Amino acid sequence: MSALLSRLSAILFAACLLLTSQILITPERAGAADPGYLMLHFTGEGATGQQMYLSHSTDGLHWNDLNDGASILRSTVGTKGVRDPALVRSPDGSKYWIIATDLCWGCGSTVDGSINNGSRSIVVWESTDLVNWSEPWLLNVAGAIPDGRNAWAPEAIWNPATNDYVLYWATNVPLDGKTKHRIFYARTSDFRTITTPQIYIDRPGAQELIDTQIVEVPAGVGNFRYVRASGDGEITLEGSNSILGTWTNLGNLSGIGLTGATGTTGTAVEGPMWMKFRDRNEWALYLDQYATRGGYMPVTTANPSAVGTYQIPAAGSYNMGVNKKRHGSILNLTAAEEARVLARWPSTPAKRLQSFNFQDRYVRHANFDVRIDQNVTSADAQFRLRPGLAGTGTVSFESVNYPGYFLRHANYDFQLVRNDGTAQFAADATFNQVAGLADSTWSSFQSYNHPDRYIRHYAYYLKLDPITTATGRADATFRVTS
Known about the structure:
Layout lengths: L7 H7 L22 E6 L3 H4 L3 E5 L5 E3 L16 E8 L6 E7 L8 H6 L4 E7 L9 E4 L11 E8 L4 E9 L8 E8 L9 E4 L9 E6 L9 E6 L3 E6 L7 E5 L17 E7 L6 E6 L7 E6 L24 E7 L2 H10 L7 E4 L5 E6 L2 E6 L8 E5 L7 E5 L5 E6 L2 E6 L4 H6 L2 E5 L7 E5 L6 E5 L2 E5 L4 H6 L2 E4 L1
Antiparallel strand pairs: 1-2, 1-19, 2-3, 4-5, 5-6, 6-7, 8-9, 9-10, 10-11, 12-13, 13-14, 14-15, 16-17, 17-18, 20-31, 21-22, 23-24, 25-26, 27-28, 29-30
């Protein structure tokens, strides 16, 4: 995210206002024996691109989009858009949080509105296993800041000195009536309540600073325990031995030819995102090529505090996958975490369910109710047939545009509902796929917990009914199609 008011026009044309925030685990949490890396990110503009996406890598340089490149979480609060996510793991690995900017750029938000009257809250999700996430909630972080106009690019890092998290983000508090983003911080233990916000980083004069991100460095590498990279017209590096202590300016990365404020030579980059290679003392600092809309690319170093050691990898030595990677966070996975993540979001193509007796109609959700409608080609009518939540050899239907939401019956009616992780939900959302009751080349779906009933449509709405007539058999028959 640009840190200069003079760069706002460039940002407007690029539709790319927000930057990376993220949390890196300490090196001890995942070691050389652990398998891979997980990147949480958003992909671009619009209501679809500004949601949560995951990518996986085995080497930290070659990335594969999970979930067939579709989002894995969708915000239902605030602006209903999310950018700049940070993926936070508790020190004991028992909890995870996603924190993100509450902004849907291009979905009704204007430049001036986002800067001067944006959301003062960030979006938060919580999980105990990295795959099943709570409903999102809003955490008001900037409301107590005098004349604070927004809250962008949140990040958090565990602070052993205070035994809680330092949560920090950018807020515009204008200077002489002009835009001036600074970094504020507060402490939290649960991402539901925070201490009174304080200024964390404030550059001199009118200089803005919107994105900053910290990595913890092991003993014996460089002179500092922590190094932070900030987008403030350049990518500036600073070092410290205390998260809330004094930071030393180490220089910037202008020498590698990628950074530079608007009007300078070279390709401008922003949104720094750290990653520690698990099997060696080497780091990748991913930088977003905002000026060319190129998304992330890595630069590497064996000493994060030494600005002269950063290098651009050779052409062809990295691959960012199909989706553009924007402003995110990388987690070094343990073997158990990787197994859960890859099992939850495998490559499962989106499908539609076509009605047998009304073949111009397809199953779709509308306002979370479920029916069959004519010629629906939107994501409302697209589902992923996942392995059944409640039993082997069964199926469950997960929404494409509301990931984590499944077709579920309640009182024999159907709705699209978020998986709450309970056994009751799993049973209600699980079905046996059998030969079509009206045509064996099609399919019918028998309820897992009410095996005498099947999915059928009635007056175009989906119901769970016993099937005893020819009409019922036709209503309960569907084709699974692309």
